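Can anyone check this?
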Amino acid sequence: DFGKFSKMITALYADQADWLWVGTTQEIALYDRYTDQFVLPQEVYKGFVLPKGAWIKKVLEDQDGHIWVLTQNLGLFCYSKPERKMLALSIAGTKPEKIITFVMNSQGRKIASTSNKVYEGFGQEFAPLPLREARFFEGKVISEVAIVKDKIWAITDEAEVTILNPNSRGSFES
């Protein structure tokens, strides 16, 4: 029984500790399979706090025990299980812009995007990918990104797909 929680489920994720993270249009809850109960994350993880009304879009966990939560309306958040606190994120040294997509591969590589820029995460910092063909995204809206091996795929609102390939100089080209 989902009980007191919003009924519109928008995200599911099973973490390394076997908790099922259930995102909704209003909050996030954890399902405890041993007690068959839903609880708030802060009841299990001290310091886990999201702003009220966060519409949860995606939940992921990295190799360092950080829970990453992408919201529809408030951006990207990161909770450190080892430090038991929410971590401050920055993109190119500033407060994060509205992140609309976030992916992570099995090696822990993190890619986020706004509507027109792609960023790579290094710890809590995100830096713009040095795209040689940055003009590809001008006037278009990025709707999704994915990582396949060392390549980053991006889809725009015009249903165009591009593969961003690292070149020998460490920058990317489409």
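Reply from J.R.: I decoded it. Residues 168-172 have pLDDT under 50 and may be disordered.
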